[in-house]
Amino acid sequence: MKICRFDGGRIGCVDGDEVADVTDCFAKLPSFSYPFPQHDLMVAELPNLLAAVRSAVPSAPRRRVSEVKLEVPVANPGKIIAAPVNYKKHLDEVREQADLHHGNEAHMRQIREIGLFLKANSSLIGPAEAVRIGMPDRRNDHEIELAVVIGKTAKNVSASDALNYVAGYSIAFDMTVRGPEDRSFRKSLDTYSVLGPWLVTADEIPDPSNLGFELKVNGETRQKANTRDLVLGVGELIEFASSFYTLHPGDLIFTGTPEGVAPVVAGDRMDATFDGIGAMSIEVLA
Ligand code: MN
């Protein structure tokens, strides 16, 4: 199923070009008082609610997808984990272009050596919002990535068992200011993490290691690749991440971007398509 959030916190199931409003199925999410849990409540409860959602869809009120404002499908991720240089050809282009590595040796090493990084949760937006260029004097790049949404608590999970911990998948943009600073700083500006257009439940994508995807800017293809070329695949990333962090339901893993990263400026439009997930279009504004 394709689970979306729209129009001010409503929850929908995307069916073709329509959204079935299944908000009522989520009315009984557990409530908490301070201090709140570190996981996303909707994602944590999803396994218990999918049967009710499935039976509610045929009679649910419907809107056209094109007529709703799609919000970030995971409202409260505990953390946003991201993989640097996780496609070989992207590592090659980083090593070749001074604009990308800025002489920082740590930007040119392989993922197993440099590890993963975190993006600030405050950078996260959904499809109805726009990326707002925060540092217009610097180069600001697009990075299209497969996003993994963690479904249950995971610690020291093996790669072979890892897909059992996945709630689903979305398209992510890991927007980036180029420069010499640490990745987490340059990639955590407000609006620099985009997730959408919805969460596709893992049962619809049993094998995430063969998904073609493409990013166009103003109609021109900039990145076109396949997740089969990931250096660390989804299972290995979960193994790697969970050997350092406990992963909670709703935690996001941005799996890394392929070659073709390039600048965007205010006025650009980014159109992404991803096998098994769908399409997402995002405006870039000043
Ligand atoms: Mn990235």
Can you describe this structure in just a few lines?
This protein has 286 residues and is α+β, with helices and mostly antiparallel strands. The protein has helices spanning 41-56, 88-96, 98-101, 111-114, 183-186, 234-244, and strands spanning 2-6, 10-15, 18-21, 62-64, 70-71, 80-82, 117-119, 124-125, 131-132, 140-141, 144-150, 166-174, 176-177, 193-201, 212-217, 220-226, 252-254, 269-274, 278-285.
| CATH topology tier name of the largest domain | Fumarylacetoacetate hydrolase, domain 2
Binned strand content: 25-35%
The CATH superfamily of the largest domain bears the name Fumarylacetoacetase-like, C-terminal domain
Shape: globular
Helical content class: 10-25%
Q: Can you name the CATH architecture of the largest domain? A: Alpha-Beta Complex
Over the alpha carbons, how many angstroms does the gyration radius reach? 18 Å
* CATH class annotation of the largest domain: Alpha Beta
Q: Quote the distance from N terminus to C terminus.
A: 35 Å
Number of helices: 6
Main sheet makeup: 12 strands, mixed
Specify the structural class: alpha+beta
**Averaged pLDDT:** 96
Number of domain modules: 2
Assembly type: single chain
Structure description:
- The chain is 17% helix and 31% strand.
- It is α+β, with helices and mostly antiparallel strands and 286 residues long.
- The chain folds into two domains: 2-71, SH3 type barrels (Roll); 80-285, Fumarylacetoacetase-like, C-terminal domain (Fumarylacetoacetate hydrolase, domain 2).
- Strands 1, 2, 3, 4, 5, 6, 7, 8, 11, 12, 14 and 17 form a twelve-stranded mixed β-sheet that branches. Strands 9-19-18-15-16 form a five-stranded mixed β-sheet, with no helix packed on it. Strands 10-13 form a two-stranded antiparallel sheet.
- The chain binds manganese (II) ion.
- Residues 82, 143, 145, 174, 254, 256-257 line the site of manganese (II) ion.
